[in-house]
Amino acid sequence: MHAPGIWGILVVAVVVILLFGRGKISGMMGEVASGIKAFQKGMKDDDKPVERVTTTAAAPVGEPEKKDV
Asked: Which of 6, 13, 20, 44 could link 24 by a cystine bridge, Cβ 3.0 to 4.6 Å?
């Protein structure tokens, strides 16, 4: 098989523009760009060290312990 020439690419581009319209294509490209930005932000967040939060168990609420005097 051979690679498509300039005329083949132009015909495909015209058909795509006719099917989707200019506004739809620009909207889709905007959504793709925002998805890429969100992915890159998520990858940057993975590089940061994770802060571990530890909690200590609270003493059970009830009667106080009896002490021998």
From this structure: 20
Identify the residue with better confidence: 50 or 26.
26
CA distance 27 to 31: 6
**Could you tell me if 25 and 17 are in contact, meaning their C-beta atoms sit under 8 angstroms apart?**
yes
Q: What does pTM read for this prediction?
A: 0.42
Distances (CA, A) of 62 to 58, 59, 65, 69: 12, 9, 9, 21
- End-to-end Cα, the chain, rounded Å: 98
SS3 state of residue 58: coil
